From TrEMBL:
Top-rank taxon: Bacteria
Organism encoding this protein: Arcobacter arenosus
Family in the record: Belongs to the helicase family. DnaB subfamily.
EC number: 5.6.2.3
Pfam families: DnaB, DnaB_C
Domain SF4 helicase: 167-453
Function (record text): The main replicative DNA helicase, it participates in initiation and elongation during chromosome replication. Travels ahead of the DNA replisome, separating dsDNA into templates for DNA synthesis. A processive ATP-dependent 5'-3' DNA helicase it has DNA-dependent ATPase activity.
PANTHER family given in the database record: REPLICATIVE DNA HELICASE, REPLICATIVE DNA HELICASE DNAB
Name of protein: Replicative DNA helicase
CC annotations in GO: cytosol; primosome complex
SUPFAM superfamilies, sorted: N-terminal domain of DnaB helicase, P-loop containing nucleoside triphosphate hydrolases
Entry keyword set: ATP-binding, DNA replication, DNA-binding, Helicase, Hydrolase, Isomerase, Nucleotide-binding, Primosome
Amino acid sequence: MDSVYSINIERAVLSSILFNPEELEDVLGVLKPKDFYLPAHQKIFAVMIKLHDLAMPIDEEFIRKRVDSKEVDDSILLEILSANPITNTLAYVREIKDASVKRELTTLATTIKKVSLEEETSANDALDVVQSELYKISTDSATSELKHMETITADTLSYIEKMKKLGNQHLTGRTTGFFDLDKRTTGFNEGDLIILAARPAMGKTALVLNMALANVEAGNGVIFFSLEMPAEQLMLRMLAAKTSIPLQNLRKGDMDDKQWTDLTNAFEDLNQKKLFVDDGGSININQLRARVRKLAQNEANNISMVIIDYLQLMQGTGNKDRHQEVSDISRGLKMLAREMKIPIIALSQLNRGLENRPDKRPMLSDLRESGAIEQDADIIMFVYRDDVYKEREEAKKEKEAQDKGEEYKSKFVNKPVEEAEIIIGKQRNGPIGTVKLDFQKQFTRFVNKDNPNEAPIEVVFESISDSGKETQIDVPEIL
């Protein structure tokens, strides 16, 4: 057990702080009181932090006054004061942190055994407990040190030079699939959490499927968590967008010879792409994190984007109120995006209140549980199609007239192509505004408005090589 703690190292660090209190600032960036093995050392370090916060001297007398003599014996303080001086305190600090993490992992091993043997605990619940505890340990063990200005400027210069070599291209991340949206956002960049929100029937699922298709066809790996729709239905929509075969024809199998040929070719092409779909319909942030990590471990998958449809259907991980659960989910997705260095797109529902406004274009305040989501998101976009409301309004007038025994001829014209607005309500690193697209209803496909055939901006970052391996489209749940 002595491999997971060292009293001498703990004593040396506390001694170093006593003789040079300024070192506490650096130590606090790595250690917490619980990271010390000896309870007396935990108490002393906690008192040091309290004295530091109160801007009081960190010395023997002030510490003695604030510790219980029953918990911290005089001999322990004397041993700390008589410890040999050290020169590289942070090296010792990292040893303490490393031992602390190992002890927590040992405790977790005991927890795993305990929950595995409890008959009243299901396997899924046991996995959830283990994943949650492991995430807490991994998050707590992650440390970061302050960067010196020379390091920051060097990294920034490297980034600027990299952008210059790209020839002033607009896209620096993963393509949105649309030229004007790429230009407005520079694409979806690594570590970004993107929220795409809309009222029902606006086409938000169709839009992210179009984005997924554009990325898999560019050689990127995409994971799609569908909590509402089976994988087969998603694939039908993607095929309609890819082949220009009406979705209703695909559903009924009503196609001519050319369309069957186009469909066969589309399947052969998609079979070489890296799209992974989890349509289990029930998942929490711990399970999602584990599945993303599992697929990302294989570099051949080149996981470059994660999509969740949709955020409010994700489960919480404890007995918390829904607002707190959504806050935890939102923060968890942002942390995962930063950890994996990929963009994560989460669909979100909007409050019904906007239906009562004359102008029904969404705003940030329309987001459900908007506080946490708005805080964590790097980009928040809304999908709005005015024709959806015009059709509903005309249908309402027609029904009211029928109820009164009157005639009413609907003024709504059902067009095959409707204008859609992608409203950027928040963008942490860019401008807000509106990008207009056309929505081709029968193909469930959004296209560039001015030039439907205009390709998205060329992807500027090379994808990880897949070593020539073929990857099938996984439509079952990711296990």
